[in-house]
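User: Assemble these into one structure.

Assistant: Restating your components, then the assembled model:
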Amino acid sequence: MAGEELVFKVKADLLKSLAHPSRLAILEYLKKKEASVGEMVIKLGIEQSGLSKHLSVLKQSGILSSRQEKVTVFYSVRDKDIFVVLRTISEILMKKFREGEYLLQHLARAKP
Amino acid sequence: MAGEELVFKVKADLLKSLAHPSRLAILEYLKKKEASVGEMVIKLGIEQSGLSKHLSVLKQSGILSSRQEKVTVFYSVRDKDIFVVLRTISEILMKKFREGEYLLQHLARAKP
DNA sequence: ATTTTATATGAGGATATTATCATATGTTCA
DNA sequence: TGAACATATGATAATATCCTCATATAAAAT
């Protein structure tokens, strides 16, 4: 694989690890503080086994880290810059939908 | 689907549309100027049919827009903020790999 | 020692994504 | 008109991702 292609692949892999609704919910939940798997099972309503796998995806990609205390595993966000990515995504979507509303309103008015 | 879940789904869909090496290559190519499909087939070395589908994914998700001139279709980036996302992704990866190098060097030194 | 608790993992099928090939569509030009 | 060109689309097969269920692991409590 050519050098640049490898770079694109690595970036795409990181984006892929973000690109799932449950994983976005996890990240939002971990924005302010670390949390254990059990806590997230309850608060996010994701089934234990699935949650564990999503956490593992986020850890493999370097977005989360974990520490263990007795039997409990706590996950936390490794690099807060990930939230810059997510906030920008939100802004892009908000702009887009605002344009959509604008268009809708003006199309409706132009009807007759 | 609950309101918040829908929001996560919409964000995840946008991230998914970014999460492919060819599509990242397309976006980088379109960073400075619009380009036609034919031009990108040549410069990016992606096969015509596949490229057309990747462009369609990016257009559906609102990242690209297109205009037609005779038979030629030109694509361009609709909201430059998408590059904020990509730059931040790069920065996160660079930090991560620098940490990796650092660790490697110190592990090597601590060997004996 | 056995049971309970917290988390991770493996197997299976269901669904989604991708690549490729062939073909369709629409436009220009001879 | 019909050949050539630029792009899009459909079908299919290959691959990847996801969900769920069952079970594994490992520490704690009884």
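Chain A touches chain B at residues 4-5, 8-16, 18-25, 62, 79, 81-82, 84-86, 88-93, 95-96 (CB under 8 Å).
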